[in-house]
Specification:
The protein has about 210 residues and is mainly α. It folds into two domains: about 5-70, Winged helix-like DNA-binding domain superfamily/Winged helix DNA-binding domain (Arc Repressor Mutant, subunit A), CATH 1.10.10.10; about 75-210, Four Helix Bundle (Hemerythrin (Met), subunit A), CATH 1.20.120.530. The protein has nine helices and two strands. The protein has helices spanning about 5-25, 35-40, 45-55, 75-100, 105-120, 125-145, 150-165, 170-190, 195-210; strands at about 60-65, 70. The chain has a two-stranded antiparallel sheet with strand order 1-2. Helix 1 packs across helix 3, helix 4 (about 75-100) packs antiparallel against helix 9 and helix 5 packs antiparallel against helix 6. The mean pLDDT is about 85.
Length: about 210
């Protein structure tokens, strides 16, 4: 098989399995059978094996003996640690971004903030998911402006894990939306004056409050 075709098959397998995990169709603890997944996706077992290896490195899959793997389950302590680690990393990213951010990036943040406020105002059964998608774009801008590939590598597994846990914390997310909008505006204000300490403190508050909506 040509290398480009092999890479495409591996990417397709990765996207499929990751989507199944994030959506909850593959529940925590479920076994991941290479042969069955290959048949579902329409690829050979090798791309599936590659995809499972990548998902293992990102923290969503747990490899076991005899070439077995299953969807990783997370304890409450592990979930707590994920929130705290992400708060540390993203607050550092905000501090870096504050001294580097461009006016174009600030305009993007304002646009995403307005879109999220509109979603919250309109509500609806899919509001939390739509909000989350836009929120990810908001945070991606900050990470890009932080200009630290190493930081992105450290954060990626934490982001994947929190995506997989989204349904588990759906009520928490919905309760947090209004406050999150206010935090976004505070972050933008800090970026506009290039205040790294303000941006760092606001991001840490923003991230940690997501797990305590009350």
């Amino acid at each position: 098989m040509p290398r480009s075709t092999s890479q495409s098959a591996a990417a397709r397998a990765y996207d499929y399995i990751r989507h199944q995990i994030v959506q909850g169709d593959l529940a925590a603890g479920a076994f991941l059978i290479e042969q069955d997944l290959a048949a579902e996706i329409g690829v050979s077992r090798t791309p599936v094996r590659d995809a499972l290896g990548r998902l293992q490195s990102e923290g969503l899959v747990l490899a076991e003996g005899n070439k077995r793997a299953r969807v990783r389950a997370f304890t409450e302590d592990e979930v707590e640690e994920c929130f705290e680690l992400r708060a540390q990393f993203e607050s550092y990213a905000a501090a870096r971004a504050a001294t580097r951010i461009t006016q174009a990036a600030i305009a993007d943040l304002k646009r995403y903030a307005t879109q999220m406020e509109d979603v919250v105002s309109k509500g609806g059964p899919h509001a939390a998911q739509i909000f989350s998608d836009i929120n990810n774009q908001f945070h991606d801008v900050i990470l890009e402006q932080a200009d630290s590939p190493r930081l992105c590598d450290l954060l990626r597994p934490l982001l994947q894990i929190q995506l997989a846990l989204m349904k588990r914390y759906q009520h928490t997310i919905e309760s947090h939306l209004h406050r999150s909008c206010w935090h976004h505006r505070e972050l933008i204000a800090a970026f506009e004056v290039h205040d790294s300490q303000w941006a760092e403190a606001q991001m840490k508050t923003h991230m940690l409050s997501a797990k305590n909506p009350g």
